[in-house]
Specification:
Rossmann fold, 7-stranded antiparallel sheet, alpha/beta, Yope Regulator, Chain: A
Length: 451
């Protein structure tokens, strides 16, 4: 029996031979396997035999088993690392993934090859070699199936996480939008979140990143929403993956400065460690700089060092009056470079202060008469003109004064109705406001029948 007849016979025991005459003439041919080592495994392999002339003049036979073109999100380098591991333990055949990347996808074929000398080649041995090649081909196909399932599962999990994060982010942004006023702040925060989100995606895509520092300066008078926005920023940073926890640790000078040398650094570092994964919010941060008269600079240096050593793990927001914060940023060369984004919190207008007041009424289930409402507006306008007003704390104080005065106006009544307990009338306006409110019948508290 000639060597060519031996090859045809061996291929026939594995599957169907397409080019019998060509192979019998010592030319390349194809065969389609119908019998596989793993009967329940992948099928559809394409077989080929190639006659190779070596430099020595001797002839060799190359057995090749391949797949159709396949697609995967996995990198070819990753798959060929798996192939290298298999090739170290394979007796005859070698497997390889050949193809190219297509914008994130890999298009490739699986090739399993084995080279044999034609001299003394026996049919039983050739059948064993072909079976070994098919076994390795099936393992490679199963590996691709596993890795594709894993990638699809991970993509589904990422999508689910993204949907959840987007839902949470929309909730937080809705809370931000629900805040009275602060239009420039809302615009800046949205821009900041968008910039950080795109930077994260560019990094994942292997693109250069021009990412702004996440650390912020909040400039504005007390009661203009700085602390509230800082808490929202912490939650938003967590939602976009910038922080692992997103909690906010709020401190001031008293929590950071110690009474003797060395104590400040220890206290400040301990507080920074509590803020890891979240936001360290330092209110009235300018009070740390008192021209070197105490250990304020020690606290600043400790914070800057901690920020450098824990990049990506903590965000610091410093807040205070505008002019004082400018001086604070100039007090240490490391501050300006790390806090390159400043957000200005303007004072509330009288209209915005009234919106805050109305929200307090709704939140605490109070009603107010038109006359009492006009008195509140006039009082807030007076405070605003005297530059006493402009912040939410003042509105809360006004509201608390009204609630206290309303309670006193009802103190002599028994069997109070819900309507009486809810309604704030002109009689709840403190005399100290001096608003000269007119009293009408509608301002009288609702009476209980029989009174």
């Amino acid at each position: 029996m000639s060597i060519e007849t031996t090859i045809v016979s061996a291929m026939g025991k594995i599957g169907n031979v397409s080019d019998v005459d060509r192979v019998l003439q010592g030319k390349n041919g194809y065969f389609s396997p119908t019998k596989y080592p793993d009967a329940d495994g992948p099928t559809g392999a394409m077989g080929r035999v190639l006659f190779v002339d070596r430099f020595s003049g001797a002839r060799a036979l190359c057995i090749q088993v391949s797949s159709a073109y396949l697609l995967s999100d996995a990198e070819l380098t990753t798959m060929n690392k798996w192939a290298d591991g298999k090739n170290h333990s394979s007796v005859f055949a070698r497997v390889q993934f050949r193809g190219h990347n297509l914008g994130g996808d890999s298009e490739f074929k699986i090739y399993v090859e084995c080279n044999l000398s034609l001299a003394g080649l026996r049919e039983e041995f050739l059948v064993e070699v072909i079976n070994d090649s098919l076994r390795l081909w099936q393992e490679a196909m199963q590996y691709v199936e596993r890795i594709n399932r894993r990638i699809e599962r991970e993509k589904a999990e990422r999508k689910q996480t993204e949907v959840k994060e987007q839902k949470v982010m929309r909730t937080v942004l809705h809370e931000l939008d629900a805040l009275v006023g602060l239009q420039s702040v809302k615009y800046m925060v949205r821009g900041l979140i968008a910039q950080q989100t795109v930077a994260k995606k560019r990094k994942a895509a292997g693109l250069p990143v021009m990412q702004a520092s996440p650390h912020l300066v909040f400039s504005g008078n007390p009661g203009t929403g700085k602390t509230t926005v800082a808490r929202l920023v912490g939650r938003l940073y967590k939602d976009i993956g910038l922080l692992s926890k997103g909690h906010v640790v709020e401190v001031g000078r008293a929590e950071l400065i110690g009474g003797y040398i060395g104590q400040t650094a220890i206290r400040t570092k301990n507080i920074c460690e509590k803020a890891l994964g979240g936001v360290l919010f330092i209110d009235e941060a300018y009070s740390l700089d008192v021209d070197g008269r105490d250990y304020g600079q020690e606290a600043i240096e400790t914070i800057l060092t901690f920020m450098e050593e824990h990049r990506g793990k903590i965000v610091v927001i410093v807040a205070g009056y505008p002019k004082e914060m400018e001086k604070f940023l100039d007090s240490n060369p490391g501050l300006r470079s790390r806090f390159d984004t400043a957000i200005q919190f303007d004072d509330y207008s009288v209209k915005e202060l009234m919106q805050i007041f109305e929200s307090l009424l709704v939140e605490n289930q109070y009603d107010i008469t038109d006359g009492a409402r006009r008195a509140v507006v006039r009082h807030l306008m007076d405070l605003h003109m005297r530059e006493v007003g402009g912040n939410a704390r003042l509105v809360r104080n006004v509201f608390q004064q009204l609630v206290a005065q309303q309670a006193m106006s009802l103190a002599g009544l028994e069997a109070l109705t819900v309507e009486q307990m809810r309604l704030i009338t002109i009689f709840a306006i403190p005399a100290a406001w001096d608003v000269n409110a007119e009293v009408s019948l509608s301002e009288l508290p609702p009476l209980v029948v029989g009174e």
